[in-house]
Amino acid sequence: MKQDEIDWLGGHVAFWDLSELDDTVAVATQIECLKEDLVQVRYRDCMLDVGWYPSFVLDGAFLVKVVSLDWERTIFEERVTELAELKPSMQRAARIASDECGQ
To answer: Which of 22, 93, 95, 97 is 20 to 30 A distant from 65 in Cα terms?
Structure first.
């Protein structure tokens, strides 16, 4: 998966580790790539964060979050288990981050 497949709406991609994931292949065959730290996108007053919880465990899920920069306040949180759901979830999170936190 490539970071330019998402419109980050002014956010800056600070960390991207989804390049190895293939959204045409089942998650179960890519478990070695699924860890807690996958994506961080910075906005003026918050961070969009994506990880797989728990790391490397098939029964886990992607957690897509928008949090305040001090990580004390969660603005948006969504769990998805399929790669086909991940891009739309990240796009929703980017819209919320852009609206709530500025660019």
So the answer is: 22
d(CA 39, CA 26): 20
- Longest Cα–Cα distance in the chain: 37
CA distances from 25 to 33, 55, 78 (A): 13, 19, 22
Q: Under a CB-based contact definition with an 8 Å cutoff, are residues 23 and 87 in contact?
A: yes
**Segment 1-43, tens digit of pLDDT:** 899 999 999 999 999 999 989 988 888 899 999 999 999 999 9
Q: Domain residues of the chain, as ranges? A: 3-101
Q: How far apart are CA 34 and CA 44, in angstroms?
A: 28
Distance from C-alpha of 51 to C-alpha of 57, rounded to nearest angstrom? 12
| Phi then psi dihedrals of residue 86, to 5 deg | -70, -50
Q: Where are the beta strands (DSSP E) in 1-103?
A: 12-16, 39-42, 46-53, 61-68, 74-80
Q: What's the whole-model pTM score?
A: 0.94
